[in-house]
Amino acid sequence: MSQPESAVADAQAGGRSAQEPLAKLAKRYGLRRAIARPRFHVYLRQLWERRHFMMTYATSRNVSKYSSSALGQLWQVLTPLLNAAIYFVMFGLILGGAKGIENYPVFLLTGMFVFTYTQRSVTAGAKSISGNLSLIRALHFPRAALPLAYTIQELQQLGISMGVLLLIVVWSEPPTLLWLLIPVVLALQSLFNVGASLVMARVGSNMRDMNQLLPFIMRTWLYASGVFFSIQDKVVDGAHLPQWVANVMYLNPAASYIEVMRDILMPQDHNPPAFAMAGCVFWALFALVFGFWYFWRAEERYGRG
Amino acid sequence: MAELTEELSQVKGEEPGVATSKDVRVYPNPEPTGHKPVDAPTGTPTVVVDDLHIVYRVYSASSDHEKGNAVSALVRMLKRQGRPQMKEVHAVKGVSFVAYHGDAIGIVGRNGSGKSTLLRAIAGLLPPHAGAVYTDGQPSLLGVNAALMRELTGERNIVLGCYAMGMTPAEVKEKYQEIVDFSGIDDFVQLPMSTYSSGMGARLRFAISSAKTHDVLLIDEALATGDREFRKKSQERIKQIRESAGTVFLVSHDHKVIEETCNRVIWLHKGKIKMDGDPKEVMTAYNKG
Fold first, then answer.
1. Could you list the residue ranges forming a coiled coil in this record (chain A) (predicted)?
2. Of the given ranges (A106-110, B3-7, B40-44, B163-167), which has the lowest mean pLDDT?
């Protein structure tokens, strides 16, 4: 389109033999493309080298989030507590969701906190590239560091929420050896969240409307995951739908993690489907592998916006 | 939003009255004109820019003559017109040149002529729409502003900025005191950056960005800000960095800086190279045009 001009510039570039194409010249001196996607394993290694940046970035964002409020970091504990109180009043007392479910507060809070972790990671991941263009256009680093840092930030938040939850649980259900499994399930869920937020980061980077659409997708997911009701009770026993509908709902990643976590925290009162734990492992591995691969494929294009 | 705008202006280096003001002369010993501060090019290309095109996508609120309400948006959708808010800005239109080891290249041009965009493309931060940039090693842009957070203390920002530039914990530890000393902000390092005066903020940002060494270095002008004394100090630091780097690109509106430090000047006009050559010649033509 601007051939004449660039031809002039070519002639002025000087110092090289007549009409050698620039690409050839670059090759002759072993220059590489300034923006190129590294091989996948190199990419992962570069990402590992940036782990300190990710951790510091996540912590910094958490610290700065509440720095303007008077109560400061206390909000990290207050937010989940207030949320828990609202959910309990809303779904437990007013809507009567507690019917037929033993120990409804623990049932509800477990579902809510576990779901919120995934929801927030995915939502944050979707904004991690599109909301950080100035950073991407200024510094060099594997772009996956951003969605990862956002997930780490959510994990730090979840740590506090889980502390609150366990305090409430201890009140009604004595701790058992099963509690040792809590970190394992959370680790699996974190892997899933990392993968999901990587996928959403790429989708969000070129689909601007994703940020408007996400709240609705998230709400649908929330209702489909049995956060404040028992899927088996409502779908099969209540609505008389075939068993496979409930099974499909139980197979969704959020429901898998919620069901397993409920099984750990309230072993007497809750019976998750047998395949829930397998679902947790499958979703973690699948999302992680696919997420990294999918995100990496567009690595060199994230700066364009 | 205001913060974002501020940050962008810092990145682009278009703070009003900083580098462009004519009556502020802070360079103590103007070197004789025609002096080449760096070694003559040795003939090894370090950066090859081959017919580069950069297209930005800009999402903005609709302008005055377009109605921004839902009905008109729906009508546009039905008529299958594109979103008016999304504009494509063709910032760099077919630029080609070769930079050699030892070159210090000044890039001049009006606001919006594509200078900063070209630098970002050379640094490999903006993907080309067409054409390519080939480099030796990893060119880096001098500037870390976008990674810093205003609500955090200077202390935390130093650590965050250093990690963002890719330092290891050991390097951060080693450089920390040096950065604090150079910025001269003393006890303010314990306070959030939002409490800093604009000069102090600029000093700290410069101190962090210049703490790392680079092969191919890209400098966007507004780095040398702050008070008189600090500008002197930062000019000195830029000079050091420039001498240790293989190839330097410098974007500036300050003609004196360009003439003093560069052995070659590229004049960009509306995304195309208008002139490329000896600083004196190009600058004379640029001042006339």
1. none
2. B3-7
Q: Count of CB atoms within 10 A of residue A8's CB? A: 17
Flag whether A213 is in a domain.
Answer: yes
Look at residues A129, A60, A111, A135 and name the one whose alpha carbon lies nearest to residue A225: A111
Burial of B64 (0-12, 13-18, 19+ CB in 10 A): exposed
Q: How many CB atoms lie within 10 A of CB B36?
A: 14
Sequence-separated (6 or more) residues with CB below 8 Å from residue B87: B57, B58, B60
Rounded distance, CA B256 to CA B262, Å?
Answer: 10
| Contact of A145 with A112, CB cutoff 8 Å | no
How far does the CA of residue B33 sit from the closest CA of chain A (Å)?
Answer: 23
Q: Which residue do the tokens 């000044």 mark?
A: B106
Do B124 and A10 count as a contact with CB atoms less than 8 A apart? no
B2-53+94-139+214-288 carries CATH number 3.40.50.300: yes
Q: Which residue has the tokens 């609120």?
A: B61
Residue B125 and residue A138: Cβ atoms within 8 Å?
yes
Instruction: Report if residue A86 sits inside a domain.
Output: yes
Residue recorded with tokens 């008070």:
B227
The DSSP line for B79-106 is TTPPPTTEEEEEEEEEEEEEEETT-EEE
To the nearest 10 degrees (0 to 180), the angle between helices A145-172 and A104-130 is 170
- Written as one letter, the residue type at B185 is I
pLDDT band at B15 (very low <50, low <70, confident <90, very high): very low
- Asked if A302 contacts A141 with a C-beta cutoff of 8 angstroms, the reply is no
Query: DSSP E strands: which ranges in chain A?
Result: 32-33
Report the C-alpha gap between A52 and A63 in whole angstroms: 16
Q: How many residues does chain A have?
A: 305
Spatial distance between the Cα atoms of B255 and B193, rounded to a whole number of angstroms: 32
Query: Does residue B152 contact residue B193 with C-beta atoms inside 8 Å?
Result: yes
Task: Identify the CA nearest to B125 among candidates A143, A137, A300.
Answer: A137
Q: Check if the beta carbon of residue A121 is closer than 8 Å to that of residue A150.
A: yes
Looking at every residue in chain B, the average pLDDT score rounds to 74
Interface predicted TM-score (ipTM): 0.77
In a domain, A14, yes or no: no
Question: Which of B117, B114, B135 shows the shortest CA–CA distance to B126?
Answer: B117
Please answer yes or no on whether B272 and A6 come within 8 Å at the CB atom.
yes
Q: Is A211 part of any domain?
A: yes
What separation in angstroms does the CA of B204 have from each of B2, B158, B196?
21, 8, 10
In terms of residue numbers, what domain contains A137?
42-295
Amino acid, single-letter form, for residue B254: D
CB atoms within 10 A of CB B174: 13
DSSP-derived secondary structure letter, A39? P
Longest CA–CA separation in chain B, Å: 66
Q: B222 or B102: whose pLDDT is higher?
A: B102
Chain A residue numbers with beta carbons less than 8 Å from the beta carbon of B285 are none
SS3 content of chain B, % helix, strand, coil (to 5): 40, 25, 35
**Number of structural domains, chain A?**
1
B276: which chain A residues are within 8 Å (Cβ-Cβ)? 9, 12-13
Say which residue, B72 or B151, is predicted with more confidence.
B151
Query: Any idea how long chain B is?
Result: 289
Q: Which residue has the tokens 């194409």?
A: A21
Residue spans per domain, chain B: 2-53+94-139+214-288
